[in-house]
Amino acid sequence: MSDFVNQFWNWYVILLTAVSIIACSVVLWSQNITPVSGKADTTGHVWDETLEEYNNPLPKWWMWLFHITVVFSLVYCVLYPTLGSFQGVLGWSSDGQYAKEVAKADAETKPLYDKYLAMDLSALAADKEGVETGKRLYLTYCMQCHGADARGGKGFPNLADNDWQWGGEPAEIVETISNGRMGVMPAHAQLGAETIKDLANYVRSLSGLPADSLRAAKGQEAFNSVGCSGCHGPDAKGMHALGAPNLTDSIWLYGGSEPTIIETITKGRNNQMPAWQQFLGDAKVHVLSAYVLSLNKGTESK
Ligand code: HEC
Ligand code: HEC
Predict the structure, then answer these.
(1) In this structure, which residue's CA is closest to atom 3 in ligand 2?
(2) Cβ atoms of residues 185 and 268 within 8 Å
(3) Ligand 1 atom 6, closest CA
(4) Where are the transmembrane segments (predicted)?
(5) How many CB atoms lie within 10 A of CB 170?
(6) Residues 189, 195, 198, CA angle at the centre, nearest 5°?
(7) Confidence grade of residue 248 (pLDDT, cut at 50, 70, 90)
(8) Binding annotation
(9) Can you tell me which atom of ligand 2 is nearest the CA of 188?
(10) Element (H, E) at 3
(11) Cα–chain-centroid distance for residue 112?
């Protein structure tokens, strides 16, 4: 509350709080007057000839609940920061409360993460408990983009298919998650619509999709002469160092229809995997890497 610029707001809050509590008490006490017994007071409403609505005081036990709330608020005002800039006698503050809780949780889980960090990544990927921890982290930090089942979506790679843009070796996965990745496929509109269509047909033929064979043949030439092979490799099997995907498989980041491939080549694609090392620290990145690795167990790396 130190950001009150002048005393006006301080006293404004104190006054408002005090007046509210006093007003509540006054209303409560005013209800406390029991009418002298005799003929019961009625509101004058009569139904069905003899049914009258009485105007009796509220039950005592119920009234006491209200009195207790007034006492509670007075005690609260003394203990906690309620009245303007008064800090309360307990000195409690919400300031730094979150950081304190995070630090406490980190301290509690540190021995566990230290144990995981000391484990070899492949061994951790086979450790049931470690993988479960990794899954929980995954569902907190990664699911929004890669999906709950890690199977990705358009523009977000599937992490469970053992097909890697940036490499599936343990060290490569750790690097990807730690420092993020930036996939850049340059725009090639300058090649002209015809050449781009040829290239799209060639790319489709590589994955065994129906393609115009004449265009595919011309596209193959262009693939090497205009520089596609510089990034995707002469065999079009991709290059991990640049994040250039393998174009010969049936796995697509954006899609394998002719119009989609034409769009990819014409306009290019930019894609970013965020970096996590600074935010999560080495141990959590290690456990997440093991989780990603575990998703691909039993399938051959591509
Ligand atoms: C904001 C969205 C977003 C979040 C959150 C995100 N990622 Fe990614 N991730 C991407 C994108 C986009 C790519 C592809 C980058 C590219 O095309 O170069 C990617 C790529 C990857 C790759 C490389 C895949 C390959 O084929 O080489 C891995 C591994 C990965 N992410 C793991 C994770 C993990 C683990 C987390 C959680 C800590 C995470 N990602 C959170 C968007 C995200
Ligand atoms: C500078 C390197 C570079 C060059 C040159 C390049 N690409 Fe790419 N290409 C990439 C990268 C990196 C990606 C992945 C983009 C991403 O992560 O979003 C990509 C993605 C693609 C895709 C999308 C694949 C999918 O799964 O959806 C196609 C198709 C493609 N490139 C074809 C080509 C063709 C054809 C050429 C030549 C005209 C070419 N690329 C030139 C780096 C390159």
Answers:
(1) 231
(2) yes
(3) 142
(4) 9-29, 61-83
(5) 18
(6) 125
(7) very high
(8) 142, 145-146, 185, 228, 231-232, 273
(9) 38
(10) none
(11) 23
Is 185 touching ligand 2 by the criterion CB < 6 Å?
Answer: yes
For residue 59, which amino acid is it? P
Structure tokens at 128: 């049931």
Q: What domains does the chain contain, in order, with CATH numbers?
A: 7-79 (no CATH), 103-295 (1.10.760.10)
**Chain position carrying tokens 């061994």:** 123
Q: Rounded distance, CA 128 to CA 112, Å?
A: 14
pLDDT tens per residue across span 253-293: 999 999 999 999 999 999 999 999 999 999 999 999 999 99
> What distances in angstroms separate CA 5 from CA 9, 84, 291, one per listed residue?
8, 12, 51
Q: What are 193's two structure tokens? A: 């619509």
Helix (H, G, I), strand (E, B), or coil: what is residue 129?
helix
Q: What is residue 94's predicted lDDT score, i.e. its pLDDT?
A: 85
The pLDDT of 196-223, averaged and rounded, is: 97
DSSP string, 71-111: HHHHHHHHHSS-STT---TT---STTHHHHHHHHHHHHHHH
Hey, what are 215's tokens?
A: 């265009």
CB of 262 sitting under 6 A from ligand 2: no
Gap from CA of 275 to ligand 2 centroid (Å): 22
- 265, two tokens: 């080549």
What would the DSSP string read from start to end of 223-283?
Answer: HHHTTHHHHH-TTS--BTTTTBPPSSSS--SS--SHHHHHHHHHH-EEEEEPP-HHHHHHH
- 22-40 tens-digit pLDDT: 999 999 888 766 655 556 6
Residues 6+ apart with CB under 8 A from 67: 28
Query: pLDDT value at position 232?
Result: 97
